[in-house]
Specification:
By secondary structure, this protein is of the alpha/beta class. The chain contains 17 helices and eleven strands. Helix 2 runs antiparallel to helix 3. The N and C termini lie far apart (73 Å).
Amino acid sequence: MADAASRLKGLIEQLLAAPLPIRIRAWDGSEAGPPGAPALVVRNRRALRRLLWKPGELGLARAWVSGDLGIDGDLYTALGLLSGLIWERGEDARTLAQALRDPEFRAAARGLFALAGPLPAPAPPREEVRRARGHLHTRRADRRAISHHYDVGNDFYALVLGPSMVYSCAYWESPDSTLELAQRDKLELVSRKLALKPGERLLDVGCGWGSMAIHAAREHGVRVVGITLSQEQAAYARKRVADEGLTDRVEIRVQDYRDVDDGPYDAISSIGMAEHVGTQQYLRYAQELHSLLKPGGRLLNHQIARRPLRDESAYDIDEFIDAYVFPDGELAPIGTTVTQLERAGFEVRDVESLREHYALTLRRWVANLEAQWVRAKGLTSPGRARVWRLYMAASALAFERNRIGVNQVLAVRTPESGDAGVPLRARTWN
């Protein structure tokens, strides 16, 4: 009988109808595949059962998070080789139902079931979000989703993000710059686009650990209200504000954007928050922010975007991201975002893509995580550390390959006079 790796390689290639570009290392120590390529390590038969009981990305995610599946070799290289088979098959890839009509596919599936053994489906890893009944993007559902992602330990995030504690795309002068300087430059870029002036009021929606609020108050003399749904973020941000001596200028609230009622504000920043809003709530999100701005006030919306589909009704939320990273998060094409902002009454004045900047940022976060891997696992859990390593590395490749992007949209609540107060020359933000 062939060794487990050779059998597994043959069966997988049958299922995929394509050669496997990386090696397979199986639980019996056997290996098969291209020499010198990274190895997909199948540590036990349970990994196969996870894939068979939940075919596709979620089964792979469960095997990875549980530690049943791993990579020996450079993670980016392995993901790059596998991406064409897993993430980049396109809208024309055949569905499972179509594949099951193929006799060769059914024969390969039976072979995998025989190799996996007769035991039942393993329970999902404890890091997988447990779904509650009810509608998406209610206040309660959003609080749960935000808590799942952000309330995993401030020390863990400090290890990954570094001293800046900014969990969004940095702004790089060059790839050789430091992460801290690039994050500081991003906060300053947002401040300049908003034309912040001493004494003005800024609302920072999804304020995270307080970095934008602190920067705006300290460097530009504005009064800031920062809102988040994460209790841990709020506690950390309040301590940072106190340590900076800015409690008279910065207020951090645990508050839903739909509940803010103390406008008008001179400016609003929303950095990496709108991805959590959801398609059905996005127009309301835009309308709420529009109503909170004074006439002439500016909004800076910093948001990840996906590529548009020929049939937008076919969009599905990424299973791995939804189950382990951002529950209920949704990405929209940049054109959709701009349209919704305009429908809410905004005049969109500038759109700037920072796609390559996010790839650089993610690679630095992955490097921070890998450099302190043992400590990272202790600060959260081994499974959650594996989640963050995979999600950030895969996301870096997705940005580099233009599968997703990130954009800063500057919009104005232009008054009836038509004077938007924006400079005649684009990108001169003062």
